[in-house]
User: What shape does this take?
Amino acid sequence: MATLEQRAADELRAIVEQYAAGEAEVVRAYFEQPHSMDDHVDVLLRQMGREIQTANWLNRAQHMLDELEVTVDRHALADILEQIAEETEHYVLLADLAEWAAGRKLGRDDLRRYEVYARWDPMAPPDKLSNAHLPEANRMLEVGHAMMDEVGYELGNEIGRLSEGGGGGAFIECTRLTGDEFRERLAAAMARIVKDEMHHGPERIDGFARNWIRSEDDLTTAARWLRTFMAQHLRVRNEIWRYSLPPERLAAIDRGEVTPAPTFATALE
Assistant: This one.
């Protein structure tokens, strides 16, 4: 008989994989339709806003540095600094591609038009907790706030981290693109990003189950919030890719009507 820890990891992984498949479908649906280079640039700018927002965590990192070896574990500090560095590198990769696609140097107002926090954070600057261009991203912050109100910031943050990258499905799907120069350049950029994303979310599931699940109630609560969080993350992904899927298809994905997404291992071959 499977242990509670094993069952928790399996259940949480199944939720992540369901929505990873949904996010891969968003990308496929986008590229099944004709799009202008301006559309491609807009998608990149929207994704870049998800990447560069992490650099705002420098204020939290500074606070952690002040408390290092007192109330802050050295591994926790290294973890947040690594994530800031990786996400900023992703922003740079996509910004370079956006300028190539646009055929010109882009200004700050373009490059950071869609910047907004990915998860609610009590230390966040208020102006980073909403973006007038991104109603679904704003809703994501509301969902995160409600989750943390119920379970607390520490557990809520850990559940949120399981959803990072939406399970990686959209990124992995992009690595498979071929057919024109834009698709091939995007595939190359995403191949570099995928190597980081596999560590940000899905690989955390076993550790989460081991460290946070102590009872059936713990599992029920974590699974409920992870599903809620990832359902909204799917809608954010759809917003990034210019609403490629209609609401009724998003609802079907919520019901589990999905085609399994390619795995990280496949993407890295």
